[in-house]
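Justification of computing resources. Each target in the renewal requires a structure prediction run like the one illustrated here; the chain below, 262 residues long, is used simply to show the kind of job we budget for.
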Amino acid sequence: MALLRKLTPMRKLFYFLLVAGFVTAGLYFYPTGRTMAKVPAQPDVFQRDPRQPLIDGLILLRAKELVEAPVVDGFQWPCGAPNGAMIYDAQPFGAMNRKRNGHHTGKDLNGIGGQNTDLGLPVCAAARGLVVYSGEPSPEWGNVVVLAHRMPDGAIMQTLYAHMQEREARVRVGQHVCRGQRIGSIGTAGGRYPAHLHFEAIPSLSTEAGMPGYHPDGTMNRIDPSELIRQHPAPAIPDPYLEIRRLRFREAAQQQQTNSPS
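Resulting structure tokens:
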């Protein structure tokens, strides 16, 4: 009471109005038998599955994926032989396709026999990488795998393998693959084309599976896979990373046997 007597009339009015405001707000929002309207929960973009099928879409690579993308020791051809033997370029990078009204954004690698002579032959990783997409973005693309690689200068490069007959069951998003490791087989995208592998090189931080395979003004942000392989050729030996992985798996298996109860 002594404190109230010390307050000026203006301060008393201020505190009275402040308390009255809190009381009024509490009475208004307090549920008194009536059901308050609930605001529908909005989907959290960071909680959605970022690997859902894509149609002409982009998915920004996660920070974890950028960190885990392995440094390459070079690139080789993904089918035929590592040096490109037994395949030919059925539709070169940047070639104008009047029917599709655009420039080709990759290379169409076909067996030297043409048509479906290479149907079902292995498709291998052009370099060691991290699987950032594995699925069917649209029927026209068929089975697609996208790998992320770290270049020697630290930049991120991706390689895309499309129209495959099947993807290897063990090739899943988040998995590391070695250069030369089988990731699928040459296909026809469900019979839409003669068998071939559509192969792209993409310097990008977004997974671009499902983007148009032709571009009216050029080739978007794609680069010629031939130039990538020419500038960063793989050594003529198997990927040492493969042997390291085998040793790690062997050690993990031995450790599991040691720790398992007899």
